[in-house]
Design a protein that fits this description.
With about 240 residues, this protein is an all-alpha fold. It has one domain.
């Protein structure tokens, strides 16, 4: 972050990502990672910073969906039973910078694919508990390792398996992301973590953006164009991540 102007642009982008992601029940970690990649932020700061921003925004999204009466505990518990301990475990791992870049690039590609997915699937199948427990463990570990909350994995899984509608998937992803992010951050901090000086400004931007996004989520306003635009940004960031 070499200049004040670059920092201002960075903070504005954080707020925009927070607004968009919270409107679909996500905390935005993959988006924050993409922005940090584009601005050349050190990998040392990426995971803990993205998770803190994730916690703030997913908290707002969780409250918004709960107030709207859209949260479904039956969709959440089979996944968090295993995801929380595995997210903490994943957070305790320290991987070299190249491996981290590849892991984040993979995550960003999945996030982009999630944004390009059609949003008209219908839920007509009960959750397979054993499958959910296994998926929760895998999602939790990868989330802690990379520094995301796991919503980019859980939401498409719920929709593709016809376990939830897009709205139900968004409502359950918000608390899932919150709990996993807390666990992953705990794992990282148990090994020692460093935070950049600009994080407080980013937190303020994320709270403002997340508040607007969570309010927006109560409506059925189409977000197709914004989702596609963000998907393109994530694809560019993923390529940049492995190219530098």
């Amino acid at each position: 972050m070499p200049t004040d102007f670059a920092l201002v642009i960075f903070i504005v982008l954080v707020g925009m990502v927070a607004a968009l992601y919270s409107s679909v029940g996500h905390g935005g970690a993959s988006g924050y990672l993409a922005i940090m990649a584009l601005f050349g932020v050190s990998a040392l700061f990426m995971r803990p910073s993205a998770l803190i921003l994730n916690i703030l925004v997913s908290t707002l999204a969780t409250i918004a969906f709960a107030k709207a009466g859209q949260f479904r505990w039956r969709l959440l518990w089979p996944f968090i039973v295993t995801s929380i301990p595995f997210a903490f475990w994943g957070g305790t791992f320290t991987i070299d910078e190249l491996a981290f870049k590849i892991a984040v690039a993979f995550t960003l590609l999945l996030a982009a694919a999630r944004l390009f997915m059609p949003q008209h699937a219908r839920a007509n199948k009960p959750i397979a508990i054993l499958d959910a427990l296994a998926c929760g463990a895998a999602i939790g570990f990868l989330s802690g390792l990379v520094g995301v909350g796991g919503g980019i994995f859980l939401t498409p899984l719920l929709i593709l398996c016809a376990w939830a509608t897009p709205r139900e998937a968004a409502a359950v992803s918000a608390p899932f992301i919150l709990l996993n992010s807390l666990a992953a951050l705990g794992g990282i901090m148990s090994q020692g973590a460093q935070f950049p000086s600009w994080l407080w400004w980013a937190c303020a931007a994320a709270l403002v953006g997340g508040w607007f996004g969570s309010k927006w989520s109560a409506s059925s306003t189409s977000q197709t164009k914004l989702r596609i635009l963000l998907g393109v940004v994530l694809l560019i960031a993923a390529v940049k991540f492995v190219a530098v």
